[in-house]
Specification:
It is a single chain. With about 140 residues, this protein is of the alpha+beta class. The strands form two sheets. It has a three-stranded antiparallel beta sheet with strand order 3-4-5, covered by helices on one side. It has a two-stranded antiparallel sheet with strand order 1-2. A hairpin with a 3-residue loop joins strand 3 and strand 4. It starts with a helix and ends in an 8-residue tail after the last helix.
């Protein structure tokens, strides 16, 4: 429980006195903002405009400097469900800096949409197995 009035009334904590604005965010919004601080060695890009051959493993790999600085970003990960968030760039006038806003999403609420014959067979199997009482996701 966060008591905003207690925080405002606290004058003995120098750190709290410097806080101008405070937002309570969920875990994956925090993950999303944390993604903005990652180094190249900590990132795996799934697709993008160009690839560069990595000398480490002889695979083509997209490098951070190959990506547009103000591109949208996505963070996906397992937790108690499938957590997802996406970040969109804010309007900015200075081309050397881009800020983002992060939006939470719930990957576990996504429907399974078969795209080929094999996936259609899997969807039919799961629908029959669960007697169509539940959606397939």
């Amino acid at each position: 429980v966060v008591d905003g009035n207690a925080i405002v009334a606290c004058t003995s904590n120098e750190y709290l006195e410097r806080i101008v604005q405070c937002k309570i965010i969920n875990d994956f919004v925090a993950q999303g903002y944390g993604c903005l601080t990652l180094r190249q060695s900590e990132v795996i890009a799934l697709n993008g405009p160009t690839t560069t051959n990595s000398s480490d493993d002889n695979e083509d790999r997209l490098l951070l400097h190959d990506l547009p600085m103000d591109a949208p970003k996505v963070c996906v990960g397992a937790g108690s469900g499938l957590g997802e968030c996406y970040l969109t760039p804010n309007d900015h006038e200075d081309d050397s800096h881009c800020s983002y806003t992060c939006y939470p999403s719930e990957g576990g609420h996504v429907e399974f949409a078969p795209r080929n014959e094999e996936e259609v067979k899997l969807w039919k199997h799961l629908s029959k197995k669960f007697d169509s009482k539940h959606r397939v996701s």
